[in-house]
Amino acid sequence: MIETKHLWRLAAMTAMIGLGACQSNGASLTGSPEGVPIVLESIEGAPAPVQTAFVGELNSAASDRKVEFVGTSTQARYRVRGYLSTETHDGQTSVAYVWDVFDAEKRRAKRLTGSSPLKSATGNPWTALDKATLAKLANASMDEIAEFLSAAKAEAPFQTAEAALSEPIVAAQ
Question: Taking the model in full, what pTM does it have?
Answer without folding.
Answer: 0.69
